[in-house]
Here is the input.
Amino acid sequence: MCKQDPPVQLYHTRHVVIIVVDGPRYTETWGSGELQHIPQRSAMSQYGTVLPDFHNDGYTYTNAGHTAMTTGIHQPINNSGFEVPYGASIFQYWRKATGAPAEKAWVIASKDKLSILADCQDSTFAGQFNPSQDCGVAGPFTGYREDSTTFRHTMNIFQQWHPDMVLINFKGPDANGHANNWPGYLNAIEETDDYVGRIWDMLQSDPYYAGSTTLFVTNDHGRHLDNVADGFVSHGDGCYGCRHIECLIMGPDTKVNYSTSEPYDLCDIPKTISQLMLFPMNTGTGNLMRKVLK
Here is the structure.
C-alpha cells in the first residue's frame, strides 16, 4: 500500500486573539481623520488589514455583538447575562476538534455578564468543551471591573497558560458613553488603544506566539451619531452609527498594509477563525473573509 502524504497545512496561524473594544463609534476610531485616538492601531495597521466597511448587521448591544463574533449567529439574546448563546462557540468547536484543555481557551472580560460566552444551548455542546473564563470582579453577577484590571489579568493569563484561543473585552468606551462623559469616552478609547498595542507587542516578543498569532481588533457595536436620539450616549438600534464598527486583522496569513472595501460582518469572524485554525464549525451564518487572507 502506498503511503499517503500528510495533509497540507494551508495556514501559519496557531493562535487567535480577539480584542473587543466595547462600544466606540467609528467616527472616533478609524473615521476620525488623523486617527488621533487610536495611534497604536494606526501604527499596527501597516502590518495588517483594515476593514472600513465592517458592521454589526444584527443586534447592536453587548451580549448580542459578542455572541455574533464567537458563534456566527445574530441572536436577540438577553443583555444582562441570564441567557447563553444558542450556538456553540469557536472555543467549544476548537476544543472538541483538538482535545485541548480548558486553560488553552479563555474569555477575559471587564464585563461579568460576558461569562455567557463560555457555554451554549446546543445540546451537542452545552456544558462541554467550555473555555476558561475571567470575567468581571469575580465571575457572573459580581459586577464590572476596571479595564486596567482586565489588562493585568490578561497579561498574567498569557504568561501562565499560553492560551491559543482568547477573547478579551475592554468596557471603557461603552461605560463612559452611557455616563454621558465625553472626555472620559475619548480617554477610554485612547487607553484601550494602548492596551491593544501592549498586548500585540507581548505576542510578538513571546516565542510561543511570534509569527503564528492572528489578532482581531473589533467592537461589539457602535453608538448613535450626533443627530440620532441622544447621540454618543446610547446605542442599540439599526442606525448606521450603531452598526458601523471597526476591524483590524493582523497575523501570518493576513495581507499587510492592506485595506479592502469589501463589506464584512461580525458573523464572518468565527468562520474565518475556523478556517485559519483548521477546525470544523458547522453552525453560524458567516462567510470567510477571503480578501483579507494572503
Summary: The chain has a mean pLDDT of 96. The CA atoms of residues 5 and 88 lie 33 Å apart. The helical segments are 39-44, 62-71, 90-98, 147-161, 172-178, 182-205, 240-243, 268-276. The chain has one domain: 15-255+266-292.
